[in-house]
Structure formats: C-alpha cells, structure tokens
Amino acid sequence: MTDKTHFAQKPVLALKPLNAPGNSFTGLFSGHIDGTSFERVQFDWEHLGRGRYDIVLFHWPTEFFRPSSRKATLKLLGRMLWDRVFHGTRFLWVVHNLEPHDGGSLKSGLTTYLFLKLLDGVILLSEHSRRELHRLHPAARSLATLVTVHGRYESVAEPPRDARPSERRNRLLFFGLIREYKNVEKLVTEARKAATAAFSLTVIGVCPEEDLERRIRTAAGDDKRIKLDIRREFVPDDELERVIDSHDAVVLPYRNILNSGVALHSLGRNKPLLAPRIGSLPELQEVVGAEWVHLFDGEISAATLESFLAALRKSTSPRPDLSPFEWTRVGSDVTRFLKSLTARRAAVEPTPTASQQSQRS
C-alpha cells in the first residue's frame, strides 16, 4: 500500500545541469517538467550521498565514461550507491551521446559499467538511440526507458522568417562548438574545391583546440568565399539567430553523431539541412521530409555541396512541420516518466522524500 504522506512534499529533482551556457536545451528541458509535481534544482556533487535528492538526472555524465581520475569517480559511484540504497534516490541518464565525443582523459570500462548498474532509467531522444544503447550495453534493456524527441529551439529575439527560395544566394553555414569529430576542416577543404563561384560558407563558433583552429584556417587559405568566425566565447543566442537567418542553409559535415541539436535549431529557423546519413538523422528526415533534411553517404565532398546547392534551387516549401518536436510534448513525456518512477518508489519503499528529510534535519 502506498504511503500517501510520501507526496506531502514535492520530490526533489536534481538536474545536471539545470541550465548550460551556450546550449539552451537543458534550460528548455528542465523548464518544461511540471514544477507543481517536482522541485527542480541544480545538481551539486557536494549533496550526493547525503539524501538530498529524490531523483538525479544526468545530461552528460562524462565523469563516468571518461574520468579524469578513476579513483575519484569510484568515490562518486560509492556515494550514488549510498543514496540509492539508504535514501531511495533514483538516477537517470538523458542519452545525448552514448559516450563523450571528446573530453576526459581515461576511457574506463569499469566506471562506465558501475554507472549503468546504478541507473534506474534512461531518457532517449530517438528510436535509433535506443537501438544503439541496447547494442552497446545489453544490460540497459532492463532499465525503465522513455523514448521522446529532441525538442525544437524557441526563438530568443525575432521569430524566423519563412524560407524564400527566390532570395537564396547559396549562402551555407556551419555553427556550433567546433570539435574534431564535427569534421569542419574537411568541410572547408571541400568548399574550396566547389566549382560554383557564387556561393559562400560561414563557420562560426568556439574551437577549444588551438591546433584544430590552425588547421581549419590553413584549409580555408585565402578563398574569399569562406568566412571563419572562430571565437573564444559562445555566440549569444540573439546574435546566432541573426547569423542563421542571414544564410540559406546549414551544413553538418559530422563523422559521427547520435542526436543533433544543431539540426533542430536550423530547422527551427526554416533553414534546410545537409547532413550525413548517420545516427538519428535519417529518423529526423522521415519526420520532416527530404526537402528539409538532405542526407549524404560517406564523407562530405565538393560534389555533395554542389548537389545540395542545386537541390535548394528547386525547393518551394516555406517552413518544415516541427510540431512533433514541441517542448510541451517533451515536458509531458518526461513528467509522466518521472512520476512513474516516484510512484514505483513509493509503492516499494514508503519513505519520506528528500525534501521532507531535509526539513526534519
């Protein structure tokens, strides 16, 4: 029998992170979880192991997949175990990537395994993500699982204009964090080979690696068609909207990807997309259509860019239908999933919530 006093106070939901600079996804994600059902707080490692949280939700748990120190990470896992056993804390992972693309110093099978064993559930942003998770980590099949979608990005300053094919001038754009796996050096190299004279490519974003930035600049050379705007700080959201709106289409030359926020951001500004046929991008194309998501096989090439430019001239649709990616859907999906976990906990372990415990101490 469920102890009804368990829900006298809202369960404490700790999100890591609650908000993130340079990526509005986490703020939109947390903001659309029902605040009348959960007390949403920023996760703090100092509170782990002290029974402060009812649910902990990790967005990018790099510490467990590529720890800087295995010893330090094992201590964190021990504190997770303590909270799970003695306080009934539930741990969830929002699977943006199956492992970090970059970052961290040590790929650790041990800490990865222990982290997955301590999870109560996973939130996936595509069906492809579920298949890949189960392929790489078969034990994850037993976890409580929610498959939802990657929410669309909302306008910060001005709403997007409808696409006007007659105004297109072959202005292509790459934006976002510039990392090795995103293949920007190859994109710039192939753009220089493009035979179409009347086109341009802009690359804008932060590149944390000096050597990679140097190679990209070398690849661009003195080609006037290529503009590099590589910064040390994230591009403000309102400025980024203006940059996207001033281009005709967006190119993702990635070598690997699971889910893509850049893709949803681009489509949300009514910009067609060129991307590789990998990860969840074919799934995205099925939903919004091939006129908006153009996929290529293999590496990005000059021929691929030229084919994309030719296809853009034939496009007539003013905007993609992104209604399946509304945040109200994501928030509703996640709220129901979290409630199912807290209800399961109440039925099995009728103990006070973390918020009640903190009030008693």
Main attributes?
Glycosyl transferase, single chain, alpha/beta, Rossmann fold, disordered N terminus, six-stranded parallel beta sheet
Summarize the topology.
Blueprint: E1 12-16, H1 25-31, E2 39-42, E3 55-58, H2 62-65, H3 70-87, E4 90-95, H4 109-118, E5 121-124, H5 127-136, E6 144-147, E7 171-175, H6 184-193, E8 200-206, H7 210-220, E9 226-231, H8 237-245, E10 249-251, H9 261-268, E11 273-276, H10 281-288, E12 293-296, H11 302-312, H12 327-348, H13 354-360
Helix pairs in contact: 3-4, 6-7
Protein name: Glycosyl transferase
Organism: Mesorhizobium wenxiniae
Descriptive overview:
- With 361 residues, the chain is α/β, with parallel strands linked by helices.
- The protein has helices at 25-31, 62-65, 70-87, 109-118, 127-136, 184-193, 210-220, 237-245, 261-268, 281-288, 302-312, 327-348, 354-360, and strands at residues 12-16, 39-42, 55-58, 90-95, 121-124, 144-147, 171-175, 200-206, 226-231, 249-251, 273-276, 293-296.
- The protein contains 13 helices and 12 strands.
- α7 links the parallel β8 and β9.
- The strands form 2 sheets. A 6-stranded parallel beta sheet has the order 2-1-3-4-5-6, with helices on both faces. Strands 9-8-7-10-11-12 form a 6-stranded parallel beta sheet, sandwiched between helices.
- The longest helix is centred in the last third of the chain and has 22 residues, at 327-348.
- It comes from Mesorhizobium wenxiniae.
- This is Glycosyl transferase.
